[in-house]
From TrEMBL, chains A, B:
It comes from Pseudomonas vanderleydeniana. This is Hydroxymethylglutaryl-CoA lyase. GO terms for biological process: ketone body biosynthetic process; L-leucine catabolic process. The lineage of its organism: Bacteria, Pseudomonadati, Pseudomonadota, Gammaproteobacteria, Pseudomonadales. SUPFAM superfamilies: Aldolase (SSF51569). GO terms for molecular function: hydroxymethylglutaryl-CoA lyase activity; metal ion binding. It holds the Pfam family HMGL-like. The keyword Lyase applies. Residues 9-278 form the Pyruvate carboxyltransferase domain. CDD domains: DRE_TIM_HMGL (cd07938). Belongs to the HMG-CoA lyase family. Gene3D superfamilies: Aldolase class I.
Length: 313, 313
């Protein structure tokens, strides 16, 4: 998705995956499709539409193939999905996905509790997935999303060296992109700037996206630091959907609406229309009436001094 | 307050002034004193304890002199107050204040609606206040806080040149420090970096603090940019107290608790103990039970990877 030249930053919407897998209620498939259409209609170029996991584990994601099929009909949309293992990869590839993201926990404790795999088992799985892609689905991109790259609720500190060792390993295994995820909201701007700078230095064009959570309110502050390090792709979730295991009132992922406002007001083109993006929340309100939606821009609106980056002189 | 060497950044708490003047309920004087003591006890070195304005206009601030008298008994605390005119300045000086902050609206429309003064009248008032200080209270510091420095709900865009012209004018009139305030939550990090860089270049040691609101969720993102421009003093408000005329769930000022966490996790010493700071909220809950308190850190806690800057290797 990096070939576009009419935007400066790619905002990758992960609400249909990261958001919906974290909420208790299930958004009916029909509304999921309507929501994704509305998000794409607002100008989002890339949406992580679901997760190819066991329907027993995550019943909200049981309709992943159907959702991908719909998303593929939306003009210009780059369709991605999360895939934790070879079986999921095969299903996602067969569904016609453009890109898969592999969750790779830098913290082995997190890996064991999240996808029940040791690091050795995880690396084998990545190898098998890349081999499958290379052999039968060469057009599909593979991104490794390094979870707990900035710290882990189980392990505590995760060192830069640990994260970078995994990043390099992933590049060696043949993935196309390596992103860094602050899975638990532990990152700070100093660390973000330092680690992404190193990622770009060591991985060059394979250095990928930033995925921040807002558990401690530091999400957009970390975006500023990542921008300085050269990051061009940011994950966001509409309404900060996903909640947070810790904090009432604290969103999970950074809120796409606030992220787009930040970027555009900084003079960085995202291609997203804020009014249409905010309007897309209506589908969520209808489908998940009990779920709180976060974000400042939907309530406060843009400032009277606001200009889209494309219109700025 | 810039002579200290055991901290890197001065967090200036404005809750007792900016916060309390915005809430409808009045915090009884006794609890105000208890709160200020708790804030100082948590390690905050500077607190804006009130506003010397007409008690008719702001009954919550009628006890300003009594509050200053109490704050002056707290060891090591630098006591400041907001002062909108000469009469307020005389009262604040007589109360023994260490520093006054003059709210100077760069937008004339805002000036007229906020303190009912044209720019010409405002400049005359500043001149008179500086003269009074020089003549009878030479030990008191005067800061000009440039309101609407980044934009105005009435005027819309406020240009860098407009803001800088006022900054230079204030320096010429003899104030000791010029800070920039994003009164209405319009600032973005690009603008913040650009404008503070210019402030430091043109004003040198007179360049002062950053005062950000979080109306659009961009407060801490703006702090990151201001840090890069060299800002060493940031205003914050406990619990984001002050609310916001626009957004339910949107705080007014940036939340001191989250600000301190940001700075410390970035390796910048503030001298503030986060646990004690969070504990100080209890006084507000008691005194203003109906007032929502914002902030992520009080609910989420610090991360397991967190270390105070002073303890970091």
């Amino acid at each position: 998705m990096k070939e576009t030249t009419d935007i400066d930053i790619l905002v990758s919407e992960v609400g249909p995956r990261d958001g919906l897998q974290s909420v208790k209620a299930t958004l009916p498939t029909e509304l999921k499709l309507e929501w994704i259409s509305a998000l794409a209609g607002a100008g989002l170029r890339e949406i992580e539409v679901g997760s190819f996991v066991s329907a027993k584990l995550l019943p909200q994601m049981a309709d992943a193939a159907e959702v991908v099929a719909h998303a593929l009909t939306l003009p210009g949309l780059f369709v991605t999905a999360l895939v934790p293992n070879l079986r999921g990869a095969e299903a996602a590839f067969s569904a016609g996905i453009h890109k898969i993201t592999l969750p790779i926990s830098v913290s082995e404790q997190h890996s064991l509790s999240n996808i029940r795999k040791t690091h050795a088992q995880l690396l084998e799985e990545v190898q098998a997935i890349v081999a499958l892609r290379n052999e039968r689905f060469p057009q599909v991109q593979i991104e490794a999303g390094l979870s707990t790259a900035f710290g882990c609720t189980l392990q505590g500190v995760v060192s830069d060296d640990e994260t970078m060792a995994f990043a390099v390993k992933m590049a060696e295994l043949g993935v196309d992109e390596v992103g860094l995820s602050d899975t638990v909201g532990y990152a700070n701007p100093t660390q973000v700037r330092r680690l992404f700078t190193r990622l770009f230095r060591e991985l060059g064009p394979l250095a990928g996206s930033a995925h921040f959570h807002n558990t401690r309110g530091q999400g957009l502050a970390n975006v500023v630091a990542a921008l300085e390090a050269g990051v061009k792709t940011f994950d966001g979730s509409q309404g900060g959907l996903g909640g947070c295991p810790y904090a009432p009132g604290a969103s999970g992922n950074i809120v796409t609406e606030d992220l787009v406002y930040l970027l555009e007001s900084m003079g960085l083109r995202t291609g997203v229309d804020i009014d249409r993006l905010v309007a897309a929340r209506e589908v969520l309100r209808r489908g998940l009436p009990a779920e709180p939606l976060y974000g400042f821009i939907p309530d406060a609106g843009v400032g009277k001094n606001f200009t889209y980056a494309r219109e700025a002189v």
